[in-house]
Amino acid sequence: MPVKVGLCGLGTVGRGTVRVLSRNAAVLAHRSGVGIELVQIGARNAVPDADTGAIPFTRDIFAVATNPEVDILVELIGGIEPARELVLTAIANGKQVVTANKALIATCGNEIFAAARARGVTVAYEASVAGGIPIIKALREGLAANRIRWLAGIINGTSNFILSEMRDKGRQFADVLAEAQLLGYAEADPTLDVEGIDAAHKLVILAALAFGMPLRPDAVYIEGITAIQPEDVVYAGELGYRIKHLGVARRNGEGIELRVHPTLVPERSLIAQVHGVMNAIMVKGDAVGATLYCGPGAGAEPTASAVIADILDIARRLDGGGRDATPVPGGGPDAGEPLAVLDIAAAESAHYLRVSALDKPGVLSQLAQILSAHGISIEAIIQKEPAPGQDHVPLIMLTNRTRESEVRAAIGAIERLESVSGPVVHLRKEALDDA
Ligand SMILES: NC(=O)c1ccc[n+]([C@@H]2O[C@H](COP(=O)([O-])OP(=O)(O)OC[C@H]3O[C@@H](n4cnc5c(N)ncnc54)[C@H](OP(=O)(O)O)[C@@H]3O)[C@@H](O)[C@H]2O)c1
């Protein structure tokens, strides 16, 4: 008997999923061992085409969640409500669930996984992080032997596209954003992408899985890319770095750092070579060392690839009668590990500081003294010539790895100097090679 799938949402990912299910039906039947049959589609509007035309359609998505014929409900409508209600209804009706919805998993996942555990069904969410890259599977299965020390990822394609264009062509943020919207890489309202919220949702899911902790969307420190200025992209390059928007989850002895922000990464690192809308995630395990997963983080068929992999997994298990024993977010901490999410003040990284300072002797030593008083050393520095008619010059410094609270205190003291004008530009830097 084929496994019967009900699919809700017929947008970019929904259409891609129907198309790939139809195109690869024979191979999927072979791989699942039982066949996969799409028995119902629910969405607001049906636009029948060659792939969807023959499949029963309903405007009532809850009819799919309660349809006795459906084994697996695939949620591709997006957003929180009614997606949450839909998924909980499906679980209550004993359906297995597949979703691509990062916002839903990050914000309501604790409730959803608890309901699924109680009902003995699976909620699979591979497509919710980094589209086509099988990073959830890598963390759940391939890296299961490891204690994860840290992970860091380019997990928002829109932000990566904008930063890549700013670097390659010296363009301004607003100008590239407008093009990204025209190309369909950025939504009409790009806030979730460029303010880092979408990346934070994905980071929360990855961290919960990597560290066995509950999903904590409230605890992520978030900075987007809207304040990145072209000169900082250039100065970072002169120092041998590229600016990438990273989500970082890291154990630091006291607890877990969860942070999303623009980050300088060494230009020779593999992750620095990930351009445009591509995504990449580095994961450092205690046994395997550093690993890198790279690929398309969005798009109809790349995301469908992940959705269908989840459907196949569930189909195989249903066929074998086995139980899903692999971990889910919040499945439990590694033994003895502190899982408190740390305030950003307790996070540790290296830092990039750009100071607009008076071009006169003694100013540099004032800055060095302030940094030193906070236990911070300067690892590299660039001092530019003053522009014609200007008495201030940009001073760009890279610091050693240090606690955020110390850097913030030092920045406050630097900004109070009479010889310094305007706010200090502050970015973080990660070597991505530490233990
Ligand atoms: N697009 C990607 O590349 C990508 C990648 C990874 C993950 N995802 C995730 O995949 C999910 C779907 O994304 P998408 O890009 O495919 O979205 P989309 O193109 O906006 O499609 C959403 C579909 O769901 C329907 N829908 C929304 N609310 C509904 C409701 N209350 N009742 C019935 N139908 C409803 C929409 O109908 P209308 O068109 O009538 O509104 C549309 O058919 C989201 O959770 C997203 O975060 C997307």
Fold-level CATH name of the largest domain: Dihydrodipicolinate Reductase, domain 2
CATH architecture of the largest domain: 2-Layer Sandwich
The count of strands amounts to 17
Low-confidence stretches: none
- Rg (CA only): 24 Å
Shape: elongated
- In quaternary terms, these chains amount to single chain
Secondary-structure-derived class: alpha/beta
- Kindly report the average pLDDT value: 94
Bound molecules: NADP nicotinamide-adenine-dinucleotide phosphate
Kindly report how far apart the N and C termini lie. 50 Å
- CATH class group of the largest domain: Alpha Beta
Percent of sequence in beta strands? 25-35%
What is the share of helical residues? Answer: 25-40%
The DSSP helix count reads: 14
Main sheet record: 11 strands, mixed
**How many individual domains?**
3
Assigned CATH superfamily of the largest domain: Dihydrodipicolinate Reductase, domain 2
Describe this structure as you would to a colleague:
With 435 residues, the chain is an alpha/beta fold. It folds into 3 domains: 3-132 and 300-320, Rossmann fold, CATH 3.40.50; 138-296, Dihydrodipicolinate Reductase, domain 2 (2-Layer Sandwich), CATH 3.30.360.10; 347-429, 2-Layer Sandwich (Alpha-Beta Plaits). 36% of the residues lie in helices and 25% in strands. It contains 14 helices and 17 strands. It has helices at residues 12-23, 25-32, 61-66, 83-92, 102-119, 135-142, 157-169, 173-183, 191-194, 197-211, 230-238, 300-320, 363-373, 404-415, and strands at 3-8, 36-42, 57-58, 72-75, 96-99, 123-124, 148-154, 221-222, 241-251, 256-266, 278-285, 289-296, 348-358, 378-383, 392-399, 402-403, 420-429. Strands 7, 8, 9, 10, 11, 12, 13, 14, 15, 16 and 17 form an 11-stranded mixed sheet that branches. Strands 3-2-1-4-5-6 form a 6-stranded parallel sheet, sandwiched between helices. Strand 4 (72-75), helix 4 and strand 5 (96-99) form a beta-alpha-beta unit. The termini are far apart. The model has no long low-confidence stretch (mean pLDDT 94).
